[in-house]
Amino acid sequence: MAKIRGAHTQPERRVRSVLHSLGLRFRLHQAALPGRPDIVLRRHGTVVFVHGCFWYRHAACRRATTPKTNRRFWLGKFRANLRRNAGNQRDLRGAGWRVVVVWEC
To answer: Is residue 87 included in any domain, yes or no?
Structure first.
């Protein structure tokens, strides 16, 4: 698991490339915002999260597998990720931000 990157992943770089080609300018990983969004389009009042299917349990996705060993630990970890993510998105919306989620698949 140590090799799994938390920032600047391939899917994130692809999304940034598309946004940049559309002429949009943005900031990355703003720590002052809840959940530290991957991309912040301040001018448009929008934040973008690029979610990995494994960590954020993308429904009906083949990449959202659960490891067979220590299953109980992983299920708890995934539940905590989902709960924290939902709270962060709720806080951002409450602060007036539009929230966009892009899945890696």
So the answer is: yes
5 domain residue, yes or no: no
**50-96 pLDDT tens trace:** 988 888 888 888 888 889 999 999 999 999 999 999 999 999 999 99
DSSP state of 24: -
CB atoms within 10 A of CB 78: 16
Q: What is the domain count for the chain?
A: 1
Return the CA Rg of the chain. 15
Q: How far apart are CA 96 and CA 75, in angstroms?
A: 32
3-state secondary structure 44-98: HCEEEEEECHHHHCCCCCCCCCCCCCCHHHHHHHHHHHHHHHHHHHHHHHHCCCE
| CA–CA dist 71, 87 (Å, integer) | 24
Note whether residue 77 is domain-resident: yes
